[in-house]
Amino acid sequence: MEQFKPPNALIFSGNLSENWRRWEQKLQLYLTATGACKYPEAQKIAILLHTIGEEGLELYNTMNVVYETPEAPTMNELLAQFRKRCNPRKNCVFERYQFWTHPMPDTGGIDKFQTELKSKAKDCEFKDTEDLMLRDKIVFSITNPALKEKLLADPDLTLEKTVSICRIKETTKAQVEAMGASAAERQMQALSQRKASKQYAQDRKSGHIKQSMQKSPDTQLYSCKQCGQRHKPKQCSAYGATCHKCNGKNHFAKCCRTKNPLWKMNKEKPKEIDSLFIGVLQAADLCTQAQKLDDAWYTDITIGENTVKFKLDTGAEANVLPIATVNTMSTPVKIEPTTTV
């Protein structure tokens, strides 16, 4: 029976009493599974000492094991000696304190909690009242007000009925959560579909999706009314652009369908005309009228190759030349129209 693995070495750290209880149970199961329980007592003792580990073997060497029949020692007698060493005298008050203060685990449910309580109740010496103590502990530990009220309302409540009601509550809660999650997923899926349909309708209305594209979903390229080119869906170069005709978005000016474009309105708008007031005009000859100009400020300014004497006025908005002066200049001067009157 090599497929059955013997128990690991006994752990002497931590709760030795609980470690021994579990190790002895595993040893008995191993002996039964492999058929070694039918072996001679000496062979069974050898299996025990071989599997108990180094610390267990050292403890055995320090024990004065007294057998009822020294010539024929039994494994049960040796187990009793180990049990006495590993199980010190129990404090019933402390064991009951641990039982009543043991919290309900967050995971595992009522079955795991009941198993843990039964393990602790073994050392509490409840005797015939153990089921009642277990029932009360479970009711006290429940944090769900509705469930606790339901249990307290039953005058004939037993441990079995308490565990059964708790199991039903856990199963119902899990089913409701699963149904709620499924409903939430369906709502999210429906919302996503509505958003996609709305976006599709907007794109179609704006011209990004052509009607023929609906009929031929396999078409790779289509003629776009926004940019005037052929391209794949959602690859329009006009997306985000500003039209120079109407200042609209997502289309080029060459594809603009606005009836009154902005450029036409600007073209038809009359130009604004600036106005200028000129109070006095004086023409001064450089030779004959020099004696009359003593009371004013003048300076010579070169225009091309011609020198003209200008009157200085710090408050003037423009300089004016008589047409006769312009005609006498040796260098031709180009005269252009102005909007200032």
Automatic annotation (TrEMBL):
<feature type="region of interest" description="Disordered">
    <location>
        <begin position="189"/>
        <end position="214"/>
    </location>
</feature>
<protein>
    <recommendedName>
        <fullName>Peptidase A2 domain-containing protein</fullName>
    </recommendedName>
</protein>
